[in-house]
Amino acid sequence: MTSDDESDLFGYSLYGGKPPSQKHSDTSRAAADRIKKRIGPLHAEIIKFLTANPRGATDEEMQDAIPMPANTQRPRRVELTQMGRVVDSSHRKLTESKREAVVWVLLEHLDPYLAKPMEREEETPPSTNAYYDKDGNLIHDCAVCGAKNAGHGFRVSLRKGMLGMWYCDEHKGEGDGIQQA
Predict the structure, then answer these.
(1) CATH top-level class for 1-123?
(2) For the residues 30-53, what does the mean pLDDT come to?
C-alpha cells in the first residue's frame, strides 16, 4: 500500500503514485506534483456526480456541473476508467461544439444485458445480490445466509458489469448450474 498522498480513492496507485507529466516541461512536472494529493478527492467528486446521474454524462457535462476544469476532470475520469469504475455507456451526446462525445457511467449503473445506462437509479441488474458501497467497495455477501464477503461468485464479470450471485462455503451448492467466477 502506498502512503496517503500517493494512493487514489480506492487504494490502487496508478502511475506508481506519481501523476504523469511531460518530462521536458517544468510547468507540467510542477502541475503533477501539485495534483498528487488531490487525486483521491477529485476522483470522489466525479464518482459522486455520476452516482447522482445514473444515466451518465459526457466529460463536458461533468466539467460544467461539478465544476472542474477540463485539464483536471478528463485525466481523473481516464484514471477511473483504467480502474474499471467508469465505463463507456455506448451512448453519445452532442457537445456544445456539435461534436459527438461518449456518455460515461459508473460500472454499477451499466445494464450488463442491454449495454446502456439503467432506467432507474434504484434498479439493480437481474440475478445479483452484490453491489458497490459508497466507498466503491464491492459488497458480495452470501445470497442464502448473508455471511459477509462470500467467496463463491457465479455469473460474475466485473468488466461486463455483471456482479453475479455470491455464496459462502456452506451454501456454494446453491449456485450449482451457474458458471462460477
Answers:
(1) mainly alpha
(2) 88
